[in-house]
Amino acid sequence: MKGCIGLQSEYSLLNSTIRLETLFEDLKHRGYDTVFLSDDNNLYASYKFFSVPTDLKRILGMRLSIIHLEQATTIYAYATTQKGHQNLIILSSLLQLSKQKAVDMNDLIKYQEDLIFISAGYASDIDQAILKKDLNDARRRIESYRYLLKQFYLGLMVQTLKMEIEVAPTIKALSNEYKIDMLPLHQANYLDEVEAYDALIKIEHSERVRYDEGDFSLPSFEQLKQSFSEYTSVFNTVESVFSKIDFVPEKVTFKLPNPLEPGISSKAYLQDLCEVGLSIRHKKQPLKHPEVYKERLQYELSVIDKMGYNNYFLVVWDFVKYAKKEGIMVGPGRGSAAGSLVSFALGITDVDPIKYDLLFERFLNPERISMPDIDLDFPDNKRDDVIRYVQAKYGKHHVVSITTFGTFQVKSSIRDICRTQGLSVADTNRTVKLATEAYEITDPKTLHILKLAQAIEGLPRHTGTHAAGIILSSVDLSRIIPLQSGSSELYQSQLEAEDLEKMGLLKIDFLGIRNLQIIKETLGLIEQKNIKLDLYNLPLNDTKTFELLSRADTVGVFQLESIGMKRVLTKLKPNQFEDLVAILALFRPGPMDNIDVYIERRAGQKFDYIDEELKDILAPTYGIIIYQEQIMKIASKFANYTLAEADLLRRGVSKKDKDILENERVKFIQKAVNNHKSEALAIKIYDYILKFALYGFNRSHSVAYAMVAYQMAYLKAHHFDAFMTVLLTSIASNTDQVVDYIGKLKEKGIKVLKPNIQVSAFEFILTDQGIIYPLIAIKNIGTQTVTKIVEERQQGPFKDFDDFKKRLSNDLNDKIIEALIFSGALDVFGLNKHTLYENRQMIHKDYELFVSDIVMKTFDEYPNDVLIEKEKAALGFNLSITPVSIYEDLMKQHQLKPLSDIDHTVRTIGLVKRIKVIQTKQGKDMAFIEVSDGQTTLDVTVFPEVYAKYGSMLSQKDPLILTIEPNQYDGKKYILIRTENIPDAKP
Q: What pLDDT, in 10s, does the model give residues 293-303?
């Protein structure tokens, strides 16, 4: 046997540059016939290790951190059988889930069956005792290992000078003394790139260096033998110990847990649930052609049963039912699952697949063995509640989250290497810029850094938790896959999603999206007005909603907020639900090129359908293939494919593999000819499919997400105050967005009121007078403080300022009180801010006992400029008082309009916050200015003629009277006509 015991892969994070994908070829090239994998304390690579096709023998192990005789140390453990492999998994999980990140010796003893243990060289407590010249301790430790472990060997390491001279001879002597065989140990952490490895190990710990400056490269087998030339018998031991090992982990058949009571047929129960569910749907909103639904339902149920997925649908139905019962909103659908009538009947989705012409085969294809994939959307603040329910129902060892790996990217690898080389931030930035902007690099030092960065690029840097994926199984997963702690309360698999799916485990994505929370809370506010909305029976031809969409008033509307999408909406001016479905599918790199074509054809531009037989498929999208389902339907109708076959065609051509494309071309043409079509037309249609195949979008997903977008647009159009109240709460920590949203509320005449210590807390509050600002959004006010205020308030309202201070004396300090005062939260006590501030000191408890009738001293209010500055410091912007608010009488006298109300040429008052002067091609100065009144901000263009007259006034710090008109040629941009100083204001 020719193997390197102690080899570590890239999955010994930040401790190896040996890449698993090339490891087997590297070993063969260096003369090995066996791979010993022994990463540090984990089995991240274990599935991949056994998946790579190779003729090399594979032996899986770990270098384990353990506690032995009250000392932290390490030991190698290698599995010899399936049982040993299972014990390796258990030990890895125990270690990763333990607080001390080490295996207790009692656990090592308990799970040692079919494991070979080897002392870990310089990292072993035995070798360290020898280095300390404490042979008695070394003997004591060897005796303990020999007594406790059935298969224990002494690891002989000679790859550092210290180990070769000071330790190896003693290990040999102790081996003879205790009749314990030695095994050749060579820890390999890199192939040849020693400098890259030295840099890698410094990334997390800047002082870390190779032990004893040893050679931890992967030698050739001949070099390995040469290094152990004085101990040649160790290779005979390798042969005798490991030669008979010949196992690959057994493939486990995983089944989903069954949510039903024992003895109940999953097939029959699912059938009954679907029939009842469809009947309920029909009663709520009559289904056209019920017989079509019944036929489709039976077909889907037969496919689901044949593929063995009855329990899958029951499991999903069960936790969706729980969510809805608990008032947790569930998204209408995501991905191809929206094409399933079974999902619709069960209430898993809320998109009618027949009404929207969605295909079941896009979701579950009876001719392609694949896992069903139902992804669920929940409000992001409720997602964990649903997962906790699933864990409680099926058990913590049956429900696990999934590990992800963060890898070194181009820029991050350069930055990390620069840091290990002691480069300054400025030099690091310069190096990153040189490397990423195609400069020609000649500086040797920079070239060296980039070479090191390239050596670590793509290596895993750290682990994370999959954002949504959860694995469920009826099998106890703690005996099948290695586990570790994750970011949630769940155990987390050490294997990533790709490995788990290849093993046959089913992944369900529980996604948390903010928009569902916004919808849910908006509905709650609407219900307080005694208005009840059925979200899934909204009129899909609502004029007010489409007017909002057409003017791109889509701030806060799911999928429609981006600047690019707003441009599309203003050009398209959608007037039907299908427009939304199409735009969500088209608004992506690639298909985006077809948006203008779609809009032009929709407006009446002529086009053809290639063949009139395809008209009913392509007419809704004006001859453009937008959806993957259209490809499937074309193949079905024109070439007589079954929908299952058509899905295989759709998948094949989307891969753009030349062999697949040619094979599918031959098949498509032949089937079309057999269907009495001409070969020439078949070729033309196949090429047309290819044109769109790469960009075709899943219509099921697009319909489901268009539904959420429409629902939010409807709520905003009809219940603007409630929608914006919830939206403000969702972005309360983002001051810029808060200011923007408040400006939009003001445009509609809705006031945002100062915080109020008697009612404000964590959310914006909708009242008949306006929307009350929350305490949590005030600067220097944290969650704990707000919680204390709310708790105290539950005992009764605060009687006055002194009562407030007295009741919260243990929870307030000067900074908190100052922030509350100048935010306006304490105005309810009827005192001005100057008086509140001067009396902010706490009442001393002992002093209170003697003085019962303290008279509060009052002060004149601060000047306006002080109040403006202090309010801005407390809130991050001016809510109740602005630089122009003192000119309210002047604005009324001269009929000046506010900045938020410029729809034609008007005079207004504003402060120039920013000015950028440029030169035209003719060499004349012009400017772009930002004008604000403290609540609304406008970007205004100052053309050369106007700038020549008024440019000097634009730099002053006082507000100005401005004459502004909308720019008719550029949306919501504005043009300055003239400026005037405010009477009695400083010029």
A: 999 999 999 99
